[in-house]
Amino acid sequence: MFTSSENIDPDDEGGVIKKFMFVNRKAPYGTIYALEGLEVVLISAAFEQDVSLAFVDDGVYELKKGQDTKALGQKNFSPTYRALEGYDIEKLYVERESMEFRGLTEDDLLVDVQIVSAAEMADLMVEQDVVISF
Amino acid sequence: MPMVEVAGKSFEVDEEGYLTNLADWNQDIAAYLAQEEKVELTDSHWEVINFLREYYEEYQIAPAVRVLTKAIAKKLGADKGNNKYLYELFPYGPAKQACKIAGLPKPTGCI
Amino acid sequence: MLHIVNKSPFDRNSLESCLRLAKKGSAVLLIEDGVYGATKGSSVEVKVQGAMANLKVYALGADLQARGVADRVLDGVTVVDYGGFVDLVADHSNLQSWL
Question: Whole-model pTM?
Protein backbone atom coordinates (compact mmCIF):
# COMPACT_ATOMS: atom_id res chain seq x y z
CA MET A 1 0.00 0.00 0.00
CA PHE A 2 2.79 2.42 0.95
CA THR A 3 4.86 2.46 -2.20
CA SER A 4 6.29 5.95 -2.10
CA SER A 5 9.23 5.17 0.16
CA GLU A 6 11.62 6.63 -2.39
CA ASN A 7 9.96 9.96 -1.67
CA ILE A 8 11.16 10.00 1.93
CA ASP A 9 14.77 9.10 1.34
CA PRO A 10 16.57 11.46 3.77
CA ASP A 11 19.41 11.86 1.26
CA ASP A 12 17.03 12.77 -1.51
CA GLU A 13 17.98 16.03 -3.22
CA GLY A 14 20.58 16.78 -0.59
CA GLY A 15 18.18 16.83 2.35
CA VAL A 16 15.59 19.18 0.90
CA ILE A 17 12.59 19.27 3.19
CA LYS A 18 9.40 18.29 1.44
CA LYS A 19 5.84 18.86 2.47
CA PHE A 20 4.07 15.61 3.24
CA MET A 21 0.41 15.33 4.00
CA PHE A 22 -1.16 12.15 5.30
CA VAL A 23 -4.89 12.10 4.67
CA ASN A 24 -6.87 9.93 7.08
CA ARG A 25 -10.31 8.94 5.82
CA LYS A 26 -11.11 5.72 7.67
CA ALA A 27 -12.60 4.94 11.06
CA PRO A 28 -10.17 3.34 13.54
CA TYR A 29 -11.08 -0.31 14.17
CA GLY A 30 -13.15 -1.58 11.25
CA THR A 31 -10.15 -1.67 8.94
CA ILE A 32 -6.40 -1.51 9.41
CA TYR A 33 -5.97 1.76 7.46
CA ALA A 34 -6.06 4.15 10.43
CA LEU A 35 -3.45 2.25 12.43
CA GLU A 36 -1.22 1.69 9.41
CA GLY A 37 -1.50 5.36 8.55
CA LEU A 38 -0.50 6.36 12.06
CA GLU A 39 2.54 4.08 11.95
CA VAL A 40 3.65 5.57 8.65
CA VAL A 41 3.28 9.04 10.17
CA LEU A 42 5.47 8.05 13.14
CA ILE A 43 8.10 6.59 10.82
CA SER A 44 8.00 9.67 8.61
CA ALA A 45 8.92 11.78 11.64
CA ALA A 46 12.37 10.18 11.61
CA PHE A 47 13.04 11.80 8.23
CA GLU A 48 12.44 15.30 9.56
CA GLN A 49 10.16 16.42 6.77
CA ASP A 50 7.35 18.97 6.92
CA VAL A 51 4.53 16.63 7.91
CA SER A 52 0.88 17.46 8.29
CA LEU A 53 -2.16 15.29 8.91
CA ALA A 54 -5.62 15.74 7.49
CA PHE A 55 -8.69 14.11 8.98
CA VAL A 56 -11.52 13.83 6.50
CA ASP A 57 -14.69 11.70 6.29
CA ASP A 58 -14.62 8.80 8.79
CA GLY A 59 -11.00 9.67 9.56
CA VAL A 60 -12.42 12.17 12.06
CA TYR A 61 -13.51 9.21 14.19
CA GLU A 62 -9.84 8.37 14.78
CA LEU A 63 -9.68 11.41 17.07
CA LYS A 64 -12.86 10.75 19.05
CA LYS A 65 -12.33 11.00 22.78
CA GLY A 66 -13.11 8.11 25.09
CA GLN A 67 -12.12 5.15 22.90
CA ASP A 68 -11.95 1.95 24.94
CA THR A 69 -11.05 -1.27 23.14
CA LYS A 70 -10.73 -3.56 26.16
CA ALA A 71 -13.79 -5.61 25.27
CA LEU A 72 -12.67 -5.78 21.65
CA GLY A 73 -9.25 -7.26 22.41
CA GLN A 74 -7.61 -4.76 20.04
CA LYS A 75 -5.08 -2.14 20.93
CA ASN A 76 -6.50 1.32 21.58
CA PHE A 77 -4.10 3.46 19.58
CA SER A 78 -5.97 6.73 20.05
CA PRO A 79 -3.60 7.95 22.84
CA THR A 80 -0.79 7.86 20.30
CA TYR A 81 -2.22 10.89 18.47
CA ARG A 82 -1.36 12.87 21.59
CA ALA A 83 2.28 11.75 21.24
CA LEU A 84 2.61 13.36 17.81
CA GLU A 85 3.47 16.74 19.32
CA GLY A 86 6.59 15.16 20.84
CA TYR A 87 7.49 13.97 17.35
CA ASP A 88 7.24 17.59 16.13
CA ILE A 89 4.12 16.77 14.16
CA GLU A 90 1.90 19.65 15.12
CA LYS A 91 -0.13 20.35 12.00
CA LEU A 92 -3.36 18.44 12.39
CA TYR A 93 -6.29 19.56 10.27
CA VAL A 94 -9.87 18.41 10.59
CA GLU A 95 -12.36 19.24 7.88
CA ARG A 96 -15.34 20.93 9.50
CA GLU A 97 -17.98 19.38 7.27
CA SER A 98 -16.75 15.83 7.91
CA MET A 99 -16.80 16.50 11.65
CA GLU A 100 -20.22 18.12 11.71
CA PHE A 101 -21.83 15.50 9.46
CA ARG A 102 -20.90 12.97 12.13
CA GLY A 103 -22.43 14.97 14.95
CA LEU A 104 -19.05 15.80 16.44
CA THR A 105 -17.61 19.06 17.71
CA GLU A 106 -14.08 20.13 18.53
CA ASP A 107 -14.74 19.19 22.17
CA ASP A 108 -15.16 15.55 21.11
CA LEU A 109 -11.59 15.39 19.79
CA LEU A 110 -8.75 14.08 21.94
CA VAL A 111 -6.03 16.34 20.58
CA ASP A 112 -5.68 19.97 19.56
CA VAL A 113 -6.44 20.41 15.88
CA GLN A 114 -7.17 23.17 13.42
CA ILE A 115 -10.68 23.00 12.05
CA VAL A 116 -10.72 24.00 8.40
CA SER A 117 -13.32 24.36 5.67
CA ALA A 118 -13.32 22.17 2.55
CA ALA A 119 -11.86 25.07 0.58
CA GLU A 120 -9.06 25.57 3.11
CA MET A 121 -8.33 21.84 3.05
CA ALA A 122 -8.18 21.96 -0.74
CA ASP A 123 -5.60 24.76 -0.51
CA LEU A 124 -3.54 22.75 1.99
CA MET A 125 -3.53 19.68 -0.25
CA VAL A 126 -2.45 21.59 -3.32
CA GLU A 127 0.63 23.02 -1.60
CA GLN A 128 2.00 19.58 -0.66
CA ASP A 129 4.84 17.81 -2.43
CA VAL A 130 3.46 14.42 -1.48
CA VAL A 131 -0.06 13.45 -0.43
CA ILE A 132 -0.62 9.94 0.91
CA SER A 133 -4.14 8.83 1.61
CA PHE A 134 -5.25 6.17 4.08
CA MET B 1 7.52 -17.95 19.84
CA PRO B 2 10.50 -18.54 22.15
CA MET B 3 9.93 -18.78 25.89
CA VAL B 4 12.22 -17.65 28.69
CA GLU B 5 12.08 -18.72 32.30
CA VAL B 6 12.51 -16.16 35.06
CA ALA B 7 12.06 -16.91 38.77
CA GLY B 8 10.24 -20.14 37.97
CA LYS B 9 7.74 -18.63 35.50
CA SER B 10 7.86 -18.75 31.71
CA PHE B 11 7.37 -15.74 29.50
CA GLU B 12 7.03 -15.37 25.78
CA VAL B 13 9.47 -13.21 23.85
CA ASP B 14 9.69 -12.46 20.14
CA GLU B 15 12.55 -13.51 17.84
CA GLU B 16 14.53 -10.41 18.86
CA GLY B 17 14.03 -11.02 22.57
CA TYR B 18 11.34 -8.40 23.20
CA LEU B 19 8.71 -9.40 25.73
CA THR B 20 5.51 -10.32 23.88
CA ASN B 21 3.02 -9.33 26.57
CA LEU B 22 3.55 -5.95 28.15
CA ALA B 23 1.55 -7.01 31.20
CA ASP B 24 3.98 -9.86 31.98
CA TRP B 25 6.69 -7.38 32.88
CA ASN B 26 8.10 -7.13 36.38
CA GLN B 27 11.42 -6.19 37.94
CA ASP B 28 12.74 -9.75 37.78
CA ILE B 29 12.09 -9.87 34.07
CA ALA B 30 13.74 -6.49 33.63
CA ALA B 31 16.79 -7.82 35.45
CA TYR B 32 16.82 -10.91 33.22
CA LEU B 33 16.45 -8.86 30.00
CA ALA B 34 19.19 -6.49 31.19
CA GLN B 35 21.48 -9.42 31.81
CA GLU B 36 20.80 -10.66 28.26
CA GLU B 37 21.77 -7.19 27.03
CA LYS B 38 24.84 -7.18 29.30
CA VAL B 39 23.58 -4.07 31.07
CA GLU B 40 24.10 -3.78 34.80
CA LEU B 41 21.05 -1.98 36.17
CA THR B 42 21.63 1.05 38.40
CA ASP B 43 19.18 3.63 39.74
CA SER B 44 19.95 5.73 36.66
CA HIS B 45 18.90 2.85 34.43
CA TRP B 46 15.72 2.35 36.42
CA GLU B 47 14.90 6.01 36.07
CA VAL B 48 14.92 5.67 32.28
CA ILE B 49 13.11 2.31 32.36
CA ASN B 50 10.36 3.72 34.57
CA PHE B 51 10.13 6.77 32.36
CA LEU B 52 9.59 4.52 29.34
CA ARG B 53 6.92 2.51 31.14
CA GLU B 54 5.08 5.72 31.94
CA TYR B 55 5.49 7.04 28.42
CA TYR B 56 4.03 3.84 27.02
CA GLU B 57 1.18 3.87 29.51
CA GLU B 58 0.27 7.38 28.37
CA TYR B 59 0.80 7.15 24.60
CA GLN B 60 0.67 3.42 23.80
CA ILE B 61 3.91 3.52 21.84
CA ALA B 62 7.59 3.20 22.56
CA PRO B 63 9.17 6.54 21.65
CA ALA B 64 11.76 7.01 18.94
CA VAL B 65 15.17 7.84 20.41
CA ARG B 66 14.99 11.52 19.45
CA VAL B 67 11.60 11.81 21.12
CA LEU B 68 12.77 9.94 24.21
CA THR B 69 15.79 12.21 24.60
CA LYS B 70 13.66 15.32 24.35
CA ALA B 71 11.02 14.01 26.73
CA ILE B 72 13.62 13.01 29.32
CA ALA B 73 15.26 16.42 29.07
CA LYS B 74 11.89 17.96 29.79
CA LYS B 75 11.15 15.76 32.77
CA LEU B 76 14.54 14.93 34.29
CA GLY B 77 16.69 17.79 33.04
CA ALA B 78 19.10 18.43 30.19
CA ASP B 79 21.97 16.62 31.95
CA LYS B 80 20.00 13.40 31.46
CA GLY B 81 18.08 14.21 28.32
CA ASN B 82 21.00 13.91 25.94
CA ASN B 83 22.45 11.19 23.76
CA LYS B 84 25.73 10.91 25.63
CA TYR B 85 24.10 10.18 28.96
CA LEU B 86 21.58 7.75 27.52
CA TYR B 87 24.08 5.89 25.36
CA GLU B 88 26.37 5.50 28.36
CA LEU B 89 23.55 3.78 30.17
CA PHE B 90 22.38 1.78 27.14
CA PRO B 91 25.31 1.44 24.72
CA TYR B 92 23.32 -0.31 21.99
CA GLY B 93 20.76 2.45 21.78
CA PRO B 94 18.52 3.85 24.49
CA ALA B 95 15.29 3.44 22.55
CA LYS B 96 16.03 -0.10 21.50
CA GLN B 97 17.84 -1.50 24.52
CA ALA B 98 16.00 0.38 27.23
CA CYS B 99 12.65 -0.40 25.63
CA LYS B 100 13.51 -4.08 25.60
CA ILE B 101 14.41 -4.07 29.28
CA ALA B 102 11.28 -2.05 30.05
CA GLY B 103 9.23 -4.76 28.38
CA LEU B 104 7.99 -2.51 25.59
CA PRO B 105 7.76 -3.39 21.91
CA LYS B 106 10.48 -2.19 19.58
CA PRO B 107 9.92 1.52 18.85
CA THR B 108 8.00 2.30 15.68
CA GLY B 109 10.28 4.00 13.21
CA CYS B 110 13.36 2.75 15.04
CA ILE B 111 16.05 2.85 12.37
CA MET C 1 -2.83 18.69 -8.69
CA LEU C 2 -4.05 15.37 -10.06
CA HIS C 3 -6.59 13.35 -8.08
CA ILE C 4 -7.04 9.67 -8.87
CA VAL C 5 -10.22 7.86 -7.85
CA ASN C 6 -10.51 4.09 -8.33
CA LYS C 7 -13.65 3.25 -6.34
CA SER C 8 -17.23 3.17 -7.54
CA PRO C 9 -19.14 6.22 -6.30
CA PHE C 10 -21.99 3.86 -5.37
CA ASP C 11 -19.76 1.81 -3.08
CA ARG C 12 -17.55 4.45 -1.47
CA ASN C 13 -17.53 8.19 -0.93
CA SER C 14 -14.04 8.65 -2.44
CA LEU C 15 -15.34 10.50 -5.50
CA GLU C 16 -17.66 12.67 -3.47
CA SER C 17 -14.89 13.66 -1.06
CA CYS C 18 -12.46 14.17 -3.90
CA LEU C 19 -14.85 16.54 -5.66
CA ARG C 20 -15.43 18.40 -2.39
CA LEU C 21 -11.72 18.79 -1.62
CA ALA C 22 -10.19 19.23 -5.07
CA LYS C 23 -9.11 22.81 -5.64
CA LYS C 24 -10.42 24.66 -8.67
CA GLY C 25 -8.26 23.92 -11.69
CA SER C 26 -7.26 20.46 -10.51
CA ALA C 27 -7.61 17.31 -12.60
CA VAL C 28 -9.53 14.20 -11.58
CA LEU C 29 -8.72 10.89 -13.24
CA LEU C 30 -11.21 8.05 -12.84
CA ILE C 31 -9.79 4.54 -13.15
CA GLU C 32 -10.92 0.98 -12.32
CA ASP C 33 -14.38 1.06 -10.68
CA GLY C 34 -14.01 4.82 -10.44
CA VAL C 35 -15.01 5.10 -14.12
CA TYR C 36 -18.65 4.43 -13.21
CA GLY C 37 -18.62 8.01 -11.90
CA ALA C 38 -18.13 9.23 -15.48
CA THR C 39 -21.21 7.59 -16.94
CA LYS C 40 -24.51 9.14 -18.04
CA GLY C 41 -27.81 8.59 -16.32
CA SER C 42 -26.49 7.71 -12.88
CA SER C 43 -27.42 9.36 -9.61
CA VAL C 44 -24.02 11.07 -9.42
CA GLU C 45 -24.22 12.54 -12.92
CA VAL C 46 -25.41 15.94 -11.74
CA LYS C 47 -22.70 16.15 -9.12
CA VAL C 48 -19.95 15.26 -11.57
CA GLN C 49 -21.32 17.60 -14.23
CA GLY C 50 -21.40 20.39 -11.66
CA ALA C 51 -17.84 19.69 -10.58
CA MET C 52 -16.63 19.93 -14.16
CA ALA C 53 -17.19 23.68 -14.04
CA ASN C 54 -14.08 23.86 -11.83
CA LEU C 55 -12.26 20.61 -12.50
CA LYS C 56 -11.05 18.70 -15.53
CA VAL C 57 -12.30 15.12 -15.43
CA TYR C 58 -10.62 12.20 -17.20
CA ALA C 59 -11.52 8.51 -17.38
CA LEU C 60 -9.35 5.59 -18.40
CA GLY C 61 -10.65 4.09 -21.65
CA ALA C 62 -9.57 0.52 -20.94
CA ASP C 63 -11.56 0.50 -17.70
CA LEU C 64 -14.65 1.99 -19.41
CA GLN C 65 -14.49 -0.63 -22.19
CA ALA C 66 -13.93 -3.52 -19.81
CA ARG C 67 -17.08 -2.53 -17.93
CA GLY C 68 -19.20 -2.03 -21.05
CA VAL C 69 -19.76 1.66 -20.39
CA ALA C 70 -17.46 3.26 -22.97
CA ASP C 71 -20.50 4.35 -25.00
CA ARG C 72 -22.13 6.31 -22.21
CA VAL C 73 -19.40 8.63 -21.01
CA LEU C 74 -20.58 12.00 -19.72
CA ASP C 75 -20.10 14.97 -22.00
CA GLY C 76 -17.05 16.91 -20.97
CA VAL C 77 -15.13 13.89 -19.64
CA THR C 78 -11.91 13.23 -21.52
CA VAL C 79 -11.19 9.57 -22.17
CA VAL C 80 -7.49 8.72 -21.96
CA ASP C 81 -5.43 5.61 -22.72
CA TYR C 82 -2.51 4.39 -20.61
CA GLY C 83 -0.20 6.81 -22.38
CA GLY C 84 -2.57 9.63 -21.44
CA PHE C 85 -2.58 8.37 -17.84
CA VAL C 86 1.21 8.65 -17.76
CA ASP C 87 1.09 12.11 -19.31
CA LEU C 88 -1.37 13.28 -16.66
CA VAL C 89 0.88 12.07 -13.87
CA ALA C 90 3.93 13.64 -15.49
CA ASP C 91 2.16 16.95 -16.13
CA HIS C 92 1.11 17.53 -12.52
CA SER C 93 3.50 18.44 -9.73
CA ASN C 94 1.61 16.42 -7.12
CA LEU C 95 -1.12 13.86 -6.95
CA GLN C 96 -3.43 12.20 -4.52
CA SER C 97 -4.78 8.68 -4.83
CA TRP C 98 -8.07 8.43 -2.99
CA LEU C 99 -8.43 5.07 -1.26
Answer: 0.87
